[in-house]
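Annex B. Sample input.
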Amino acid sequence: MSTGSRNIWEAWARSVAPLVRVNTGEPCPDPAATATRLAQAGLADQYMVYEAEGGVWHFAAGSAVSVTAGSTAITAQSGGRTWTSRTDRQPLTAFAAALSALRDAGDEGRHFYGWAAFELAHLLHADAATAGEQPLLHALIPSVEVTLTGDRTVVRAVDEAWARKVADLLAEPPAGRTAHDEPTPERAEDVIATGTAAYGRAVSRTVGDIHAGLLEKAVVSRKVPLPAEPRPDFPATYLAGRRANTPARSYLMDLGGYRATGFSPETVLEVGAEGRVSTQPLAGTRARGADPAENERRRAELLSDPKEIHEHAVSVRLAWDEMAAVCRPGSVAVEEFMAVRPRGSVQHLASRVTGRLRPDCGPWDAFASLFPAITATGVSKRDALHALARHEDGPRGLYGGAVFRGSTDGDLDAALVLRTLIGAGDEAWLRAGAGVTAQSSPEREIEETCEKLRSVAPYLRFAAD
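Annex B, continued. Sample output.
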């Protein structure tokens, strides 16, 4: 990092107000509903709800302090001022430098919330020109943060005014159920079926590329646009979908130009302050429904299907290689291999690869190595990214990227953006993909995307007129 860039981020970090007000209260009986209610209150123009491991929900809101990085420039804001610097096609490096300045300014333990767009992958692993000109990374440093656990509620705020706003909201009795338009089963299935014919053709072309030796696997996805009216209600969709799903992480946000409600089946990475890093590749899918016997039959089928096992093993192999690139020699291990995890309307083969970061590597080095998740791209990542650029319709944006919560102490928890309702501007859409290998058939991969979309589509809620 140049001296000029360092001075810019030091000046920005010094302007960021610390969270000096800390109040601890009683636990709330329904943290998902409470976090959603805070999101609906309109406290600020940016917010995120992030469900972490162990049933802990975080709510963060603010508007004054943020960092946004694209291919060529990075911009930080605080207190009405703006700082800008070049990224020289290394936005992640610049982004990490800006956030690290908060720690250098003495704001230790400060949390940030943000997202990384899928197109960042082209700068990390493929062709820089394919990354486009849209923002690739965005983080909010909140003015107020609420942590909801089973034994307490903790509110941290920059001043008494913010702390009081949240305390008043938490003291209000829960509102009655609000009426929303809900999709009928038939309407949900109509949404799910959108674009299947074109997707089948994309799968066939990708299989042809694989047989031609251009790549080993690609996770080809399809976008499902939603009608402009009625408008989806993101908080209501989050609460309805979270009641029905079993995610590794969940999130609800209006942040940096994206709105999203998601139920992530896996993490891209988890980094602890002590340097332990892990990733959780999921690959291999079967439907999951209300019949336990049928679910068990599909589970057994999943564990014995050569195509699914091969797809999963390849993903674990690549996750190991990417972990080894940033971890201490001999520390990388597969702690769990080919377990079956329920994730809403589907069940997946799941593994966990862990390691210890090298002394010269930090959380963003690990993120650069592991992003985007292998299970959202393919093998090799470079070849898969080329294939996705050929066979998918337009950029993915947030889909296949990451939503994250991190701290200046070195923690970073990043969820893979799948099973998500996404909005930007006046548009809203769903998206789903499937791992395409040499053994794939268009019919089965279409079916798999439909199975995954059923984790979200039936729980869409729309603003009532």
